[in-house]
Amino acid sequence: MKRKIYIFGHTGYIGSSLLKSLNDVNFDAIGCKIPRPNNVNLEAFYIDFIKEFLDNNKNIFCIINSAGSINCETKEDYFFNSKFDAIFQSLLIEKKIDLKYLSFNSTKVFTNGLDKYALSKKDLKNNFKNKKNFYTLYIDLVFEDNSPHFDKIKETIMKIKLFFIPVFYPGKNFYPIDLDSLSNTIKEILFGNFKTLNFIIVGNKKFNFNELIEYVNKTSNINKKILYIPSHFINFFPSFLKKILLKSKFFQQYENYDWLKTLDTDKYLIRKPNNKF
């Protein structure tokens, strides 16, 4: 009998890909929609949803939560990003239900970003505890030519009315991944038995912010001229102004802090496409 994997966020870019790639001879991948709350006690709402979900679905091998709000515009979005997995974890422990739970987080938690999405994921890092069979996957930028991030950069470039694109140089560091490498990593976790429960999912090559802009600009045949703004100029700004910039998803891209080199490899397993754990 195939083992059941339930995927939250299965209609999104990442979730829909996982639904296809994990649905094979070993697993029965099932997409599950999480209802949206409206003017209610958020914690009570999700507790009721999770209890009903667990009552209606038995013999679960794994739950993967790929749902979340990147824009994080409302208090409901922030609450979900930061607390849903932690509430689910508490209920599974309380009910003594043994299954694998994969919580998706972002590598932005290791940066100095202060936008609402980054803050919500930093809260999730604190709320979701390291316990047996509860895994956290810190995923770097998912960047393919048809990905939402590619489209968002393209849309932003096309909206700029100037004849040039202002870009920080070198700008923020990214280690973009593709969906195949993410899927392969998840399969390793599903079949494995790891003592370390935190995984950093990154690509083989580092890209700075300016290189992402250059790539999208060229690949999309927009071919605007680029005005490079040296990132080190921001170092002369006062601290309070830097904090303001870090709250903006665009202006925080000035910071080229290489977070990956600072991670404690005893606490995190770093996964690149060509490397096994």
Q: Short summary of the structure?
A:
By secondary structure, this protein is α/β, with parallel strands linked by helices. The chain has eight helices and eleven strands.
CATH arch. level architecture of one domain = 3-Layer(aba) Sandwich
Provide the β-strand percentage band: 15-25%
Supply Rg: 20 Å
| Element order: H for helix, E for strand | EHEHEHEHEHEEHEEHEHE
Coarse shape: globular
Measure the end-to-end span: 28 Å
Class from helix and strand fractions:
alpha/beta
Mean pLDDT: 93
- In the predicted model, the low-confidence regions spanning at least 5 consecutive residues are none
The counted number of beta strands is 11
Characterize the structure shown.
- The protein contains eight helices and eleven strands.
- With 277 residues, the protein is an alpha/beta fold.
- The protein has a domain at 3-143 and 174-205 and 258-271: Rossmann fold (3-Layer(aba) Sandwich), CATH 3.40.50.
- The protein has a seven-stranded parallel beta sheet, with helices on both faces.
- Helix 2 crosses helix 3, helix 3 runs parallel beside helix 4 and helix 5 crosses helix 7 (209-219).
Outline the fold blueprint.
Elements: E1 3-8, H1 13-21, E2 27-32, H2 42-56, E3 60-65, H3 75-95, E4 100-106, H4 116-127, E5 134-139, H5 148-159, E6 164-169, E7 173-174, H6 179-191, E8 198-201, E9 207-208, H7 209-219, E10 225-230, H8 239-246, E11 269-271
Parallel strand pairs: 1-2, 1-3, 3-4, 4-5, 5-8, 6-10, 8-11
Antiparallel strand pairs: 7-9
Helix pairs in contact: 2-3, 3-4, 5-7
